[in-house]
C-alpha cells in the first residue's frame, strides 16, 4: 500500500538493507524481529524520542506474518507506546485489545496477557469508560491466580479504581482478598501492603474502631518480617504514617509524639540505605510503596499536621518551607500527581497558619498557588479548597459579602459531608457577623 511505501521510505537506509536481507532468509524468522525491535527501541530512547519511527518499525513486524506470540507482544508494545507517548488513544486501544485477545489463546504467556489487560483498563478509565475497565480487570484477576505478581498488581489496580469512584467498601473488600492471597503464597511483605492500604481507606471512612485492630496486626507483621532493608523501612514508614493520622483523627495529639519520632528516625535510616538491585525470591514481593524521596516529603507533611493541631505554628511553618523546597526539586525530575497533592495539602495548612498569625497578604498569595495546582490534581476537590480558603481570607479582612459568595460556591460544589459541615459553620459565622441575616442563619 502507499502508506507502507511511505513508511519504508522514511526508514533509515541501513534498516532497509538489513530487513531485505532478513526477509530473504526464511530460516531465521527471529532475526528480523530482533532487528526491528532494536530499531524501535533506538528510536524510542533517542533524544528527543522519535516515536513515529518507533511505531513504523513495530508496525513493520506484521509484514512478516509473525507467529501469535510475536504478534501479541508487538500489539502490546504498539499499544503501550501509543498510550504513553501520543494522543492517538483509539489506535492504542485497538492494539491493546488485540494483544489481550490473542494472548489468551497462547499458553504460558502471562506477562503479555496481564500487562495488556492492565494498560487497557487504564486507557478505559482515561476515556471515562469505567464500566469497561471493571469487567476486564475482574476477568484478568480471575485467570491470574497462578501468577502471584500479576494477581496482586491487578487487585491493587481494581481497588484503586473503586477508591477513585468513592466505593471504599468494595475497595476494602478487594484489599482484604489480596491480603489473604498474599498470606497463602507466603508473601508477608505484600500482605502488609494490602492491610496497610485497607487501613488507609478505613481512616478515610472514619471507621476508627476497625482501624485500631488492623494497625495492631500490621505492626506485628512489619516487625517480624525479615527482608530487603529498604522495603522493611518503607513498610514501617507506611505503618507509622497511618498511626500518626489515626491519633490525629481521634484528637489524641499527645499520643503522636513517640510515633512521629520513630517516623523521623525511619526516614533518616532509609536515606542512608542504598537501593538493592537483588530481586526478591518471591514474585509476589515485587512491589514498592513509595520512592524514598516521596516518603521524606510525606513525613514533613504529617509533622506539619501534628504541629498545627498542637498549636506549634512556627514549627509548622518551618517544616512546610522545608517540604515545599524539597517538592520543587522533585517536580523538576518527576511529574507524579502525588507530588502536586502533597503540595496542595501543605499549602492548605500553611494558609491556616498565615491567617492565624495575621499574615493575610502571604495567605492570599498561597491561595493563588493552590489555584495553579488545580491543573495538576483533582480539580473539584481542589476548587472546593480554593473557595473555602478564599472565604476564610475574606472573613479575616472583614469582607463579608465576598466571604459569603466564596462559601456559597464551595457549598454548591462539595459532596464531602465533613467539608459541607465545615463550610456551613463558616457561612453561619458570616451571617452572625453581619447581624441582619437571622432568616438565612436559621
UniProtKB/TrEMBL annotation:
Keywords per UniProt: Cell cycle, Cell division, Chromosome partition, Mitosis, Nucleus, Repeat, TPR repeat
Cell division among keywords: yes
InterPro entries in alphabetical order: MAU2 (IPR019440), TPR-like_helical_dom_sf (IPR011990)
| Repeat is among the record's keywords | yes
Where is the protein localized? Nucleus, Nucleoplasm
Which SUPFAM superfamilies does this chain map to? TPR-like
Could you tell me the Gene Ontology terms of the biological process aspect for this record?
A: cell division; chromosome segregation; mitotic sister chromatid cohesion
GO CC annotations? chromatin; nucleoplasm
Identify the Pfam families for this entry: Cohesin_load
Q: What is its main location?
A: nucleus
Q: What does the similarity note say?
A: Belongs to the SCC4/mau-2 family.
Entry protein name = MAU2 chromatid cohesion factor homolog
Which organism's genome codes for this protein? Salarias fasciatus
Gene behind this protein: mau2
Amino acid at each position: 500500500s502507499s502508506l507502507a511505501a511511505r513508511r519504508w521510505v522514511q526508514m533509515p537506509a541501513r534498516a532497509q538493507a538489513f530487513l531485505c536481507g532478513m526477509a530473504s532468509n526464511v530460516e531465521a524468522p527471529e532475526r528480523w524481529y530482533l532487528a526491528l525491535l532494536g530499531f524501535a527501541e533506538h528510536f524510542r530512547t533517542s533524544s528527543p524520542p522519535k516515536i513515529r519511527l518507533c511505531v513504523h518499525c513495530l508496525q513493520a513486524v506484521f509484514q512478516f506474518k509473525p507467529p501469535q506470540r510475536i504478534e501479541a507482544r508487538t500489539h502490546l508494545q504498539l499499544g503501550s507506546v501509543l498510550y504513553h507517548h501520543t494522543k492517538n488513544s483509539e489506535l492504542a486501544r485497538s492494539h491493546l485489545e488485540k494483544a489481550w485477545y490473542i494472548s489468551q489463546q497462547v499458553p504460558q504467556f502471562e506477562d503479555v496477557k496481564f500487562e495488556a489487560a492492565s494498560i487497557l483498563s487504564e486507557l478505559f478509565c482515561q476515556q471515562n469508560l469505567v464500566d469497561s475497565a471493571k469487567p476486564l480487570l475482574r476477568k484478568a484477576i480471575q485467570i491470574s491466580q497462578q501468577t502471584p505478581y500479576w494477581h496482586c498488581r491487578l487487585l491493587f489496580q481494581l481497588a484503586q479504581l473503586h477508591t477513585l469512584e468513592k466505593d471504599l467498601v468494595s475497595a476494602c473488600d478487594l484489599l482484604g482478598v489480596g491480603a489473604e492471597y498474599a498470606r497463602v503464597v507466603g508473601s508477608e511483605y505484600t500482605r502488609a501492603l494490602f492491610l496497610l492500604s485497607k487501613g488507609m481507606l478505613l481512616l478515610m471512612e472514619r471507621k476508627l474502631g476497625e482501624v485500631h485492630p488492623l494497625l495492631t496486626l500490621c505492626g506485628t507483621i512489619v516487625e517480624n518480617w525479615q527482608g530487603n532493608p529498604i522495603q522493611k523501612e518503607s513498610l514501617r514508614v507506611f505503618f507509622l504514617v497511618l498511626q500518626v493520622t489515626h491519633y490525629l483523627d481521634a484528637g489524641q495529639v499527645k499520643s503522636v509524639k513517640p510515633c512521629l519520632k520513630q517516623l523521623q528516625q525511619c526516614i533518616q535510616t532509609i536515606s542512608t540505605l542504598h537501593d538493592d538491585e537483588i530481586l526478591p525470591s518471591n514474585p509476589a514481593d515485587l512491589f514498592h510503596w513509595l520512592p524514598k524521596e516521596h516518603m521524606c516529603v510525606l513525613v514533613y507533611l504529617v509533622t506539619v499536621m501534628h504541629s498545627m493541631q498542637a498549636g506549634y505554628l512556627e514549627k509548622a511553618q518551618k517544616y512546610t518551607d522545608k517540604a515545599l523546597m524539597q517538592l520543587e526539586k522533585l517536580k523538576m525530575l518527576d511529574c507524579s500527581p502525588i507530588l502536586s497533592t502533597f503540595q496542595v495539602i501543605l499549602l492548605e495548612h500553611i494558609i491556616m497558619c498565615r491567617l492565624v498569625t495575621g499574615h493575610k497578604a502571604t495567605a492570599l498569595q498561597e491561595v493563588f498557588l493552590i489555584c495553579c495546582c488545580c491543573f495538576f490534581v483533582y480539580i473539584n476537590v481542589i476548587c472546593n479548597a480554593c473557595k473555602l480558603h478564599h472565604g476564610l481570607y475574606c472573613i479575616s479582612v472583614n469582607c463579608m459579602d465576598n466571604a459569603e459568595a466564596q462559601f456559597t460556591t464551595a457549598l454548591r460544589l462539595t459532596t464531602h459531608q465533613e467539608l459541607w459541615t465545615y463550610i456551613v459553620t463558616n457561612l453561619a459565622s458570616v451571617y452572625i457577623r453581619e447581624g441582619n441575616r437571622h432568616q438565612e442563619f436559621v
